[in-house]
Amino acid sequence: MPLGILELKSLQTLYGVAIGGDNGFSISELKDLKALQGKITIKGLEKVQGSMHAQEANLSEKSPSELELEWSYEFDGSRKETLEKEVLNVLKPCSDTLKELKIVSYGGIEFPSWVGDPSFVWLTHVKISGCKKCTSLPLLGKLPSLKELYIGGMDEVKVVGPELLGTGLAFPKLEKLSFYSMKGWEAWSTNNNGVLVDTTFPCLQELCIECCPNLVRVSVEALPSLRVLWMSGCSHEVLGSLVRVASSITKLEISDISGLNDQVWGGVIEYLGAVEEVNIEECNEIRYLWESEAEASKVLVNLRTLFVNNCSNLVRLGEKEEDNCGSNLPSLTTLAVWNCKSLEHCSCPNSLKSLTIGLCKKLLEKELVGGREKPLINSNLLMLEYVRISIWTNLKSITELSSFNNLRSLDIINCPNMESFPDHELPELNVLTQLRIVNCKSIDDSFPRGLWPPKLCWLEIGGLKKPISKWGPQTFPTSLVKLILRGGQSDDVSNFSQMSHLLPSSLTSLEIHEFEKVESASMGLQHLTSLQHLHIYDCPKIIDLPEMLLPSLLSLIIRGCPNLKERIIKRGSYWPLVSCIPDTNIS
């Protein structure tokens, strides 16, 4: 602790009180800071030699709104369980003002009774973390205003039940509940002496259970307000038990659920009638998400967004996909599938507006060879608004872009063998506003030919076969306001004037990336009178900036341009101009 801090008699907020340290600060010295309120954080409580020293801090006579009490993360032979309970007991704060309470790495076996006392009428947030010796949780269910509760790292807790809830109405206002890293946790029940408590968690909206591998028995009554369920590193029994008592879930996120096979998952989706978004990651026993679209449509009537990531044995979305399927999930508008190495086919519902498929190796090999019979993206997807194609090594061409009348955003990134792109169709895409074509090094030299969508606002392009310096005039629409140009090893541009014909006067934002040979930016930009944002990345030889534009900029970002640093920092030649720009980031 800083010397002399005890002389600050009017101090109200104090973060990080460090017990001990080089100057041997004692917790008892806090008694002289009588005005403390706001947030108080006290660390190193394992160094307190006796409870009388903690009592002298007089926390009960102070009025903190936030209190964090932290012991050492090391649980070795030096920890004294009884002493730590006595210390925590006398650190009870004033109950009239406390809104947030955190207890971290406490080493007692149980909590003193004030933790969870209903007299803390304003307490809304509680976090109890890393208390590895505790065998039970404190009685928190009677806190009348508690809205968020986080419990984690309680290795010795095996059962969560009545000791947390109490009798009668429990957690009357709790909205978010999170359990994490509870390695010894085996059972969760609202059963109180044989009687199921049906007035528990009436307002709970979000439930998170993470890294609780031994939890298998869950006996919880209805959760009528639950909207978000997030589970990771748990068993399928827990997932099944919870969806059965939470019929109003609108968002389900699951990751690494043991035992979650096709049959178990089929039983889960029967309870997902209200769900709008599903995110599934690392569930490697699932091969299909549903039997058929027709069957799924009877249950998943509200499903709008589906993300599937890193499910190594997923073969296809539906076990019985038909060639003409695609119309049975009319509410599904966003589909993303990533890192599913066994995926063989992906039937896309006609209602899709956003489609992302990446790093699905088997699908790429099967779907994108020449002369394929079943195209991955078919022209029936008339509602498709967003398409992202990324890291698709076998993709050689795209055709019939003009069929997608609602396409607003198209990304084609890191497709090294793509040889042709139908830019002659771009003018027909009347609603396309965002386009990214990056690192497609095999595209025919004829691209780009200067043909662009009439309403294009945002363009990122570069890393193509034809160097940017060889591009001819481009007829960009006046709607284009943001342009991102990416260079490459083949680009021999040495100054921005060589690219001025690519920079329409309508631009308000310009980004330049990885032009290793560019030395000058002083010329070639003077016609950009509307420019507000200039960002230059990884141009190691660049030595100057367009001085005439700097006064009108709202943001300037320079990164990886070491020769500019001395001219931009204080006392540099650009400093008088740069210092007036509201947002600058030079690194």
Overall 3D form: flat
Give helix % range: 10-25%
Please summarize the sheet with the most strands: 23 strands, parallel
Average pLDDT, rounded to a whole number, is 87
Cα gyration radius (Å): 31 Å
Distance between the termini: 33 Å
DSSP strand content? 15-25%
Question: What would you say this structure looks like, in words?
Answer:
It contains nine helices and 30 strands. It starts with 13 loop residues before the first strand and ends with a strand. The strands form four sheets. The chain has a 23-stranded parallel β-sheet, with helices on one face. With 587 residues, it is an alpha/beta fold. It is flat.
Write the layout of secondary structure elements.
Elements: E1 14-18, E2 37-43, H1 51-55, E3 63-70, H2 81-90, E4 100-104, E5 125-129, E6 148-152, E7 159-160, H3 162-165, E8 176-180, E9 187-189, E10 191-192, E11 195-196, E12 206-210, E13 217-219, E14 228-232, H4 236-244, E15 251-255, H5 262-269, E16 277-281, E17 288-290, H6 293-299, E18 305-309, E19 316-318, E20 334-338, E21 354-358, H7 361-367, E22 386-390, E23 409-413, E24 434-438, E25 458-462, E26 482-486, E27 509-513, E28 533-537, E29 555-559, H8 562-568, H9 575-578, E30 583-586
Parallel strand pairs: 1-2, 2-3, 3-4, 4-5, 5-6, 6-8, 7-9, 8-12, 9-13, 12-14, 14-15, 15-16, 16-18, 17-19, 18-20, 20-21, 21-22, 22-23, 23-24, 24-25, 25-26, 26-27, 27-28, 28-29, 29-30
Antiparallel strand pairs: 10-11
